Amino acid sequence: MLAALIISLTLPCMMVAQPSPLEILGNDHAAPAAPTLEPEQSRTSLVFRADDTLKVLLGHIATYQYGQSRAALAELDEFIRHAGSSPPARKNLESSFLEFLGSNATLAGKQFICQRIAQIGTEASVPRLMSMLAESATYDMALSALELIGGDTVSTTLMKASRSASGRSLVGIIGVFGNRRVPGAIPLLAPLVTSGDSMVSHAALSALGKIGTPAALEVLERANTSVAPVLRNYLLAATLVCAERLLQDGHKEQAVKVYRRLNAPGEPLPVRVAALRGIATTDPSNAASLITGILRSKDTELHAAAVQIVKDIRGIEDIRSVARIFPNLSSEGQIQLLAALSHHQDSELLQVAVRASSSTNSDVQSAAFRALGAMGDVSVVPLLVQAAATSAGSVKKEARSGLYDLHSPGVDEAIVHAVAGSRSDEKVELIKAIGERKTKSALDLVLQSTKDASTLVRIECAKVLRSLAGPEQLPAMVKLLMRKVDDTEQREFETAVIATARRIPDAARQDEALLAAYPSAKNQTTKVSFIYVLGKIGAPTSLPQLRKALAERDAEVRLAAIRALSEWPTGEPYADLWNVVKSAKAQTHRTLALRGAVRLIGLDDKRSPDESVRLYRDAMKIAPNTDELKLLLSAVGEARSHAAFRLAAGYLKDENVHKEAEVAVVKIGEGIVGTSGAAVAPVLKEVVQSSKNEDVVRRARRMLQELIRKGEYHE
Question: Residue 507 carries which DSSP code?
Fold first, then answer.
């Protein structure tokens, strides 16, 4: 600690053990250190050392400026903390702080000390702080400290000072009256409400509201007829605050009167809303009748606010009484009330939402289904399912969401039970709900439903299996790939099998179910489907089966195997695809195999860059057309080697692929320019001079400029 260090440096000759912070601060109850001096001498020395430490710290703070190190400030806070509640220590600190404020210390230092006086200061600090109010530079810091010091002296002194203050100074003092809730300041504030200075009037109104006594309310109510129109909103806000304070202090009747007066038509809507909430809070037993009365009235601007208060009513019978006027409300009122009712679980309220779900207004219907999702129980499942199946637009969306959101006991079981006897469109919604609610216990039912006569039901089952199924369901799902269905449905089940297999942590087991079932795949469609799925899973144990498929007699099966291997996650099948490139009779097979082989070259990180380039070159020699050559140049551009750079540069003059060659040259050059500047510079210069691609030219020129800057190239 800095304090301990200062102590040890300032009194090197003191032959006493290191004291605790409480000893330094003069705490008579602290256990004394083992002294070598007489007891009285030791105590005197410790007090001296505390004073000396404090002086050193304050000396540092006296020169403190904003933005500088706060080490000394932090150490003083530690010093204050150790003072605790010791009256002698706190008195000593306060005295030192007041002396500091009278010095030539920096404003930043004085502000820090004023903040600490606010924590420990007593009425003894008032004279010094009051003197600081005379200077604009220290006014705010002194007033902030005065506001937090206890005792009547501050209030009395500030009331005297307010009589001669004006403008900004008076506004600050008035603010303290309000924050300290000084009843004695009310006679001073009363005439200021109609001051010619609007800032002073505003401050006076605000302070009266915060003081919040019956006398303060009387002044505010008198001001209703005298306050300037521009200050009326401030008056209303202050009156609301005053009512709240009155209520807190036990003046309930006066608070209610204020709220009722401010809730009158003609007052600003925000004020009326706040007053209405105040009435409901103050008199909860009559809140329901109040809200009902408003909702029955033509005072439509308060309807929304009244409905919002419903969710705060605690008595269920009171809420029911409000809900009974639901049919008499406008559509907007019904929507708002449904939202409020949704916070409560009650059978009568639930029926309000159920009846509203058959409204002819689609917005009310949507609100009803939204409410049912929050407050409904198992009884509303059929209603939500039917609406989800037969409605459209926002109503359908909210009915579905309501079904997914239901959280009462038995809902999952009810959804599962309803599947068997439902129409196809309802089954779709029920199975969709099983997926959205993540009801894994229903997976057996979902698998059974994959045999449903409806294609839409079967497709929805596939989607649910895709998100929820696990290894236990995978063998049955694989068998579903052997059925004869349309392409859309087949793709959904293939996707479901792929997603489920990928969730198996052990990659070597992801394809077990597929490989076990593959021998049973007798027709072309099934084999192609299996091969597609095996390729997407990408488990290493599938490679032998896919290699066998390359030798199948059926051309479509061989083509599926080429596609699967071309998308393999590693470069391992490169040789298999290259063999197809060289030996296949069908041009389509050779072309697809070539593309796949080119892709796999870049996936083998164990192969040297030069070896990869050699493979690219071999592929370019047999590229069947310009499109394939462009594809190869794009792949070469991903290689970062001199050999790749030279290979791409060799095609710069080929009018069919020179654009792709330029891009490849620049991309490779950016990767090797740092080590091969002299070798790449001439080619880059050629690109700058001949290319019409602005981006390519910019990147090539930037590399040349960097080489020139380093002295590695001279034009």
Answer: G
Q: Which of 65-79, 84-98, 663-677 has the highest mean pLDDT?
A: 65-79
How many folded domains does the chain comprise? 1
Q: Which residues pair with residue 217 across a beta bridge?
A: none
Amino acid at 194: T
**Each residue's pLDDT tens digit, 48-79:** 456 788 899 999 999 999 999 999 999 999 98
Which residue range forms the structural domain that includes residue 104? Answer: 1-150
Amino acid at 438: K
Asked if residue 676 is part of any domain, the answer here is: no
267 three-class SS: strand
DSSP per-residue string spanning 131-178:
HHTTSHHHHHHHHHHHHH--SHHHHHHHHHHHTT--HHHHHHHHHHHH
Residue 137 lies in a domain: yes
Question: What does the alpha-carbon distance between residue 50 and residue 46 come to, in Å, rounded to a whole number?
Answer: 6
Structure tokens given for 605: 């990180």
Torsion sign across C-alpha atoms 629, 632, 637, 639: negative
Supply φ then ψ for residue 70, to 5 degrees. -100, 20
**Model pLDDT, residue 348:** 96
Is-above-0.90 flag for pTM?
no
Dihedral over Cα of 162, 165, 167, 173: its sign: negative
Structure tokens at 491: 């793709």
484-514 pLDDT, tens per residue?
A: 999 999 999 999 999 999 999 999 899 999 9
Tokens (6 digits) for 686: 């050629």
Structure tokens given for 27: 């705490």
C-alpha 403/C-alpha 429 separation (Å) is 9
Tokens 């700058």 belong to residue: 688
Domain contains 114: yes
Cα–Cα distances in Å, from 588 out to 14, 218, 288, 528, 595? 98, 95, 78, 17, 11
Which burial class, exposed, middle or buried, applies to 609 when counting CB atoms under 10 A from its CB (0-12, 13-18, 19+)?
A: middle
Task: Summarize the confidence of residues 333-357 as an average pLDDT.
Answer: 93
- Crossing angle of the two packed helices 626-636 and 642-649, in degrees rounded to 10: 150
Token pair recorded at residue 477: 């799902």
Quickly state the pLDDT bin for 10 (edges 50, 70, 90).
very low
Rounded-to-integer distance, Cα 175 and Cα 173, Å? 5
Contact (CB, 8 A) for 76 and 55? no
% of the chain at pLDDT higher than 70: 93
CA separation for the pair 304, 413 (Å, rounded) = 38
